[in-house]
Amino acid sequence: MSDVTKPMEQAAEDAVLSAPAIAARPPHAVSVSLTYAWRALLKIKHMPEQLFDVVVTPIMFTVMFTYLFGGALAGSTDAYLQFLLPGILVQTIVFTSVYTGFTLNTDISKGVFDRFRSLPVWSPGPIAGAMLADVFRFTASGVIVFIVGTLMGYRPEGGFIAVIPALLLMNAFAFGFGWIFTALALSVRTPSTVMTLAWLVLMPLTFASNIYVDPATMPGWLQAVVAVNPVSLLVTAIRDIMAGAPDLRAILLALLAPGVIAAIFGPITMWLYRKER
Amino acid sequence: MAAHAIETRALSRRFGETRAVDAIDLEVRRGEIFGVLGPNVAGKTTLVRMLATLLRPSGGSALVLGHDIEREAREVRRKISLTGQFASVDEDLTGYENLVLLARLAGLKGHEAKDRASGLLGAFDLADAAGRQAKDFSGGMRRKLDIAASLIRRPELLFLDEPTTGLDPRSRNQVWDIVRGLAASGTTILLTTQYLEEADQLAGEIAVVDHGRIIARGTSAELKAKVGGGVLQISLAGKDRREEASQLLSGMLSGEVRAGGNGVSLSVDVSDPDAGLAALSALSAAGIALSGYSLSQPSLDEVFFALTGRPPEPEDGLETAPAPEAAS
Predict the structure, then answer these.
(1) Which site in A56, A97, A130, A140 is 20 to 30 Å from B158, CA atoms measured?
(2) Is residue A121 within 8 angstroms of chain B, CB to CB?
């Protein structure tokens, strides 16, 4: 060891001594959440492919179902697309809601959360921020699928303006629904487990619904399942809105399940998050 | 102001049947670099995570900067910074974004946050990489970014959990310089390491931890003294007087004199450095010319072996980075 101070040694000392004075009061919950939301958006910016993942599947389904089965199911591909697209929008957003949980689990497994949790700020910030950023994610993926539908010939009877209330309702649904996946993310070990388990829930939820076909042709027991499936309830409400005839009762029914889910899984998520690992 | 930066009483943490940290009493003075030395799975990280309020103790208590880690966690968090064992930076964000994020969370607004981020990147020689995602950083750069992230505001106490594990020698030396600089600024540092060399180089006081317990503590010199003296090694100028030199050494020193295979070198354990010096003088007085000699203190590896009866390698065969070579 020499007595001569090395450049990096001096730089480190100066870095500490030059630290800006910071107000005694740390930033409040809203600004913490917005900062974490900014972080989540930066992640989308750096990895736009995480958005493509959730958008490509619905586009594929739209194209495939419309052109392969559309004629058989609804008499013409055009007529089927009119029926299918609102459902596909819902499917897109429900798929997207998995990603909050997925990214949360990735974060935790990488150790960056240790730093977040050692900060003197509002502790649910990272989760609140991720969910705020999801509003962007839901809207972006919804808009992309809607544009593809429009290019294929979809025309909402309620006019293009109907997309706005539809997106609002879907955001509200996904915001509540997503708590299942955040709770899941905090209970399992790896991000891929989150995905695997999420698909096990999502596949029956989206297929045993009224997204693809009119349930009238299904056996009675399945019709009963489809009728109470939260995804079906949302699709019904969205179809009404896109048709220019929003139905309050349908909207409230659509919000019932996500409301219950948020009320149950929200506190569970927070408890799991605060619980040490 | 509390007398100690860290003060623990029988601090313990169990995971199931495993006692990861087992009744540790620790006092760390303000302004010092305190080294916690031990192999993998010794409980070092568990100890740090408890002190940094990330993990609740299952027994005992601890004051960090005068605040109880359980009841006043928020106060503790306000005064500490943590650089975790696995670089706790966001790999998807750029170096610059990482620091701006933490600056904003620290309460800096707009330009203040950006200026602080740029300033730190410059100070740690990372300005060129500021726009690259942290996942493309080398191990050394990542560590520096990680430490920079801990210095957004001025911490009173900095936890560095194995700051050089897996780093190449050049990066390791840079991190050592940084740690010395931080200490010079008056920051108290608790450093954990598997590298005996690192504790020896940086820490004023060292606690040796094994199986969740402190098995020895003291300065590096005190720990070495516990194990006894070092080794005197000599190289003779010629082979002809080796026998004479060997007899002289064995007459003066208690240890067994070992002859090297090259015919000119001899080594012998010495109980204390003075005895070794006396033996060297005697060789000189007898007119036995030497081409070289060394009087080494025992390495901390030997200290560890003497304390635990086994070398400081992880038992479970976990792959670890090679121990750094001795600094010259």
Answers:
(1) A130
(2) yes
Beta strands per DSSP E along B183-289: 188-193, 205-210, 213-218, 231-236, 257-259, 265-269
DSSP SS3 for A4 = coil
- B322 located within any domain: no
Residues B152 and B252 in one domain: no
Q: Which residue do the tokens 């080794």 mark?
A: B231
Residue type, B299: S
Tokens 């019932």 belong to A256
**% pLDDT > 70, chain A:** 96
**B159: phi then psi, degrees, rounded to nearest 5:** -95, 125
Whether residue B133 and residue A39 make contact (CB cut-off 8 A), yes or no, is no
B133: DSSP letter:
B
At B324, is the pLDDT very low, low, confident or very high (cuts 50, 70, 90)?
very low
A4 interfaces chain B, CB cutoff of 8 Å: no
Token pair in block for residue B200: 């020896």
Instruction: Burial-class residue B143 by CB neighbours within 10 Å (0-12, 13-18, 19+).
Output: buried
| Residue B148, in any domain of the structure | yes
* B151 contacts A46? CB cut-off 8 A: no
Structural domain including B265 reads 229-297
Whole-angstrom distance, CA of residue B137 vs CA of residue B142? 6
Asked if B24 and B8 count as a contact pair (C-beta separation under 8 A), the reply is yes
Q: Tell me, what's the ipTM? A: 0.81
B278/B143 same-domain check: no
Q: Are B234 and B240 in contact (CB under 8 A)?
A: no
Nearest CA in chain A to B107: A27
In eight-state DSSP terms, residue B163 is T
Is A4 inside a domain boundary? no
Q: Is B89 within a domain?
A: yes
Residue B201 has pLDDT above 50, yes or no: yes
Closest alpha carbon to A87 in A197, A248, A234? A234
A112 chain-B contacts, CB cut-off 8 A: 88-91
Same domain assignment for residues B160 and B235:
no
Q: How far is A7 from chain B (nearest CA, A)?
A: 8
Distance separating alpha carbons of residues B39 and B58, to the nearest angstrom: 22
The count of structural domains within chain B is 2
Token code pair at residue B219: 């300065």
Decide if A111 and B87 are in contact by the 8 Å CB cutoff. Answer: yes
Q: Residue type at B99?
A: L
Hey, is the C-beta of A224 within 8 angstroms of any chain B C-beta?
no
| Nearest-angstrom CA–CA distance, B180 and B189 | 10
pTM of the model as a whole: 0.80
Same domain, B249 and B214: no
Q: Is A120's CB within 8 Å of B89's CB? A: no
Q: Are B9 and B93 in the same domain?
A: yes
